[in-house]
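[Meeting: bench + compute handoff]

Bench side (C.D.) handed over the final construct sequence. Compute side (W.E.) agreed to return the predicted structure before the next meeting so the bench team could plan truncations. Sequence as handed over:
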Amino acid sequence: MKTIVTTTINPPTEAIRRYDEMEDWNLIVIGDRKTPSDYRLERGRYLSPADQERYDSALSDAIGWNCIQRRNFGILLAYEMGADVIALIDDDNIPQANWGKQILVGSEAEVHYYETSLDAFDPVGATNHPSLWHRGYPLELLSQRRYDQMVSRKVMVDIDAGFWNGDPDIDAICRLEHAPECDFDKALFPLAGSATAPFNSQNTMLSRRVVPYYFLYPHIGRMDDIWAAYYVQAHGFQAVFSEPSVYQDRNEHDLIRDLKAEIVGYTNNLSLIRDLQTDPESIVGYLPGPAVRAWDLYRRHFTNA
């Protein structure tokens, strides 16, 4: 079973309508308190705020409202429904013709594999937009990135982090400087690196076995999915980056507000990555108390998984 999970606050977007038309996929949409009370889907399953409270009221309270981390409820439901592949999608990511046509997760794929001596690998720098970097990549390593050690290698894919044309997933500093409109070269994908890499939750497919380890941490600004990515890779799961399959028509953002919400990452990403290399559970030391509680409540759903 293949399932798409997304969140929405506003009325149905063009992107959600497009995913709802994909008959070989199940669609789960997670609402929030700002979502119109009469929100409906033609074919998919919508979890209202009341539905989420009934599902796990303690987890709901721990995550909080009006935040993208409500998506965790969709991940749990997809897993409960028996999904083998769970695709996470932002509602401003419009699917292109190639979206979902080739499923890499759960299979072995030949990739452009980059060897690096650094603690982290930046996938964006390996593309035809080398001046950019992925949101969450440690700023201390930017000047040291190199991509001259590349081989073709087969890897087992646990996470397929699809790229995005249009407005890419870069941090606020990078966006303020470059304001890019990207068209990534498909010939450069799929790619992976020998070190842990940031990946997001906006156009990403997870294999079922990753889900018990994958949680979008609340209360840490714009690092929710980035730290989730670092944590699952610390458990040995392989992330591969595939060719662009969506166009991001980015929702309106205040870039200075984004920057402030990313400071927790600017100041902690490198040390977190290094600590995770020796102890994956060291992430708890980087999380505020409410996030730790939410993480513990989420993991209880997998006690017997």
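W.E. noted at the follow-up: Residues 160 and 267 are 27 Å apart (CA to CA). C.D. will use this when planning the next construct.
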